Amino acid sequence: MHELIQTIVDLLIVGMAAILIVFTVALIVLHIIMTSNDKRVERIKKRILRMLSAAQDLEYLREQIYDLLDSDDGAHSLRSIRGIRSNRGTIALSIVVEEVDQEKKDKLREIIMRDSWYTEHMHKNLHSRSDERVGVFTKLIADLQVPGFEDDVYANLCRWKSKAETQEISLLALFVCGCEEKLLSLFSDPGFPLILSFRQVQELFTFYSGDHQELYRRLLGTDCDNYVIRACIHGIGTEGCEELSPLVAPYLDSDNINLIIESVRTLGKLCYEPALERIRELTSHQVWNVRSTAATALAAISPETCYDDLLRCLCDREWWVRFHAAEALDSLPGHADLMEDAASLGDRFALDMMRYIRERSMILGKGVPA
Asked: Is the pLDDT of residue 353 over 70?
């Protein structure tokens, strides 16, 4: 029994000694590597550190991409960066794209486009079963405006119809690449469900790299989602596309209240006189938001003929309608007796609102229109 115990103890001592020797050798090697200035050993050191730390590997790949962008040698390609097609390589590329200016983005796009080795990798990943992985490469396409992937992006929009994240980033890629036909095909397809908010759709239109007016012209009048139509009408007003005003006017009679409001606002901005009488009628609309917007638009289109209509709106039961009517009245020139006219209405709320707007103008230094 005593001999058995002694044998076990001896084996344990030998095992512990072996482990100690291995760790000692490993520490000595690591110390040599860490303190060495030799280039070859330096490369080995970096490789070991990359293997031990994901953050180190990511930083290494990021530095390699920056070196490639800073190089003047047009022959360099992403192929020279070891691990660029790995998950970490994709992440590093996405980080760099977020950090660099437009000039560097353009250079990176050229590097990607001339290297079929990497574009094939992108095509492959755009057909992945993982919507997250597809999203990463679609965002890369959108950020760099890389052409040639429109069919893949379009197919993914049809493949993941219920994924809001995929829909947003895929539509962004089509907008920034100016894919007019693809967008028209999607938005006019009754089987394509637009699941984004209006604000998201509106922002997407601001990224369109093609001819905005032509896109608006082709979308208006089609059976698109109301968010798309509304975004087009908003863009027409914001960008001052006066020649498209006749395409907006029919939406003053829409069944959708938001389309009516957006149309009134846009036609007011563009001072579209053929819509004057219809907008005058809308100052009596049953929905207060429409009446409020119509009051402002009426003053913009015809400041000479809107005075009586605005006085009527000043007596509206809704605060916001009175507010916008008072603002519009305060901006009209040639009405020195405005306050007397407001008092003669016999509505103290109308008079109070007019006084508030007039005093506000004085405080802000706008003065009173002559």
From this structure: yes
